[in-house]
Amino acid sequence: MKTAFLTGLVSAIALASGAMADIKIAHVYGKTGPYEAYAKQSHDGLMMGLEYATGGSMEINGEKIVVIEKDTQLKPENGKALLEEAYGDDEVDLAVGPVSSGVALAMLPVAEEYEKVLIVEPAVADSITGANWNRYIFRTGRNSSQDAVANAIALGGENVKIATLAQDYAFGRDGIAAFKEALAGTGTEIVHEEYAPTDTTDFTAAAERIFNAMKDVEGDKKLFVIWAGGGNPMGKVQAMDPSRFGIKIATGGNILAALAAYKEFPGMEGATYYYYENPKNEINDWLVKTHQERFGTPPDFFTAGGMSAGIAVVEAIKAAGGTDTEALISAMEGMEWDTPKGKMMFRAEDHQALQSMYHFKVKVEDGVDWAIPELVRELTIDDLPIPIRNK
């Protein structure tokens, strides 16, 4: 009887412990700092993704989802320390983030050290799923190559001459390197590359070097800009009248606040990760409707990305049957899931999420505060030959 009682007691404790177990997720992101607008979108999207994928319960298999927020302030050393704290002290099952590529690169070795999954969203640099990658890293966000290949399709061609302007850190340099590679064989020539510090506000000297390099070149001349955050390089270079040298400005997509500056460039073409009117699917319909009701605005660039990450978390845990790291990795390699952008798939070789991009042409419309990146065509996974860079 005593043995039976003790066995029953142990079973009851085990059941109670299982019932009280939480799924703990750390969101390590730049909640404050230069990219806080991106960060808020990413967090709102993550929470909406978890909500959508769980049917509003915020539970998976009866276990409550707990999201622990940690603010990197956009500092790599903070990202590293906070992820160590999340895996070690908080004992989270997995982590999501960050916003900045520089912060992400500092965090990658921590995931390997603790043998825990880190889902990178929305940091972009190719090296995250390339040279600096390890098997615990999955990325739902697009990488520089996806931006580059999509923009090369939109902008490249015979007799096209391009100068580039980008930020002088991983995001900008990886982006330009991938863009140049993607243009190979298209007949496009890169005439000049210009890199500026991330906090640059005066682009006069950079613009003059670009103009001097391009002024005597023959062909369809474009200045392709890769920039994150403030500074408004496109507007400031445009104010210097590049058209006198036959130069047209081009760039990829951006958040709605930044798209306001695109109103100076009607007809400009490029490729974007997301604009709320472009994808046509039930998940995006829910996101647009729900975000408008809750926040009074359409969902933005990184809201869709955060939601895609949240849905991926839920689908991965369901497929793995829990939060064991090895089971998660096995479930996520090759995993396909539906997002506001349609189907995504984690490529088994480097855990990069393959996904659609959108070729756009800028349309300016009265009563709309931003330029509309009107869809020219969706570039599907099959249209985008994204290199594997972790070899």
From TrEMBL:
<feature type="signal peptide">
    <location>
        <begin position="1"/>
        <end position="21"/>
    </location>
</feature>
<dbReference type="GO" id="GO:0006865">
    <property type="term" value="P:amino acid transport"/>
</dbReference>
<keyword id="KW-0029">Amino-acid transport</keyword>
<keyword id="KW-0732">Signal</keyword>
<dbReference type="InterPro" id="IPR051010">
    <property type="entry name" value="BCAA_transport"/>
</dbReference>
<feature type="domain" description="Leucine-binding protein">
    <location>
        <begin position="23"/>
        <end position="363"/>
    </location>
</feature>
<dbReference type="InterPro" id="IPR028082">
    <property type="entry name" value="Peripla_BP_I"/>
</dbReference>
<dbReference type="Pfam" id="PF13458">
    <property type="entry name" value="Peripla_BP_6"/>
</dbReference>
<dbReference type="InterPro" id="IPR028081">
    <property type="entry name" value="Leu-bd"/>
</dbReference>
<comment type="similarity">
    <text>Belongs to the leucine-binding protein family.</text>
</comment>
<protein>
    <submittedName>
        <fullName>Leucine-, isoleucine-, valine-, threonine-, and alanine-binding protein</fullName>
    </submittedName>
</protein>
<keyword id="KW-0813">Transport</keyword>
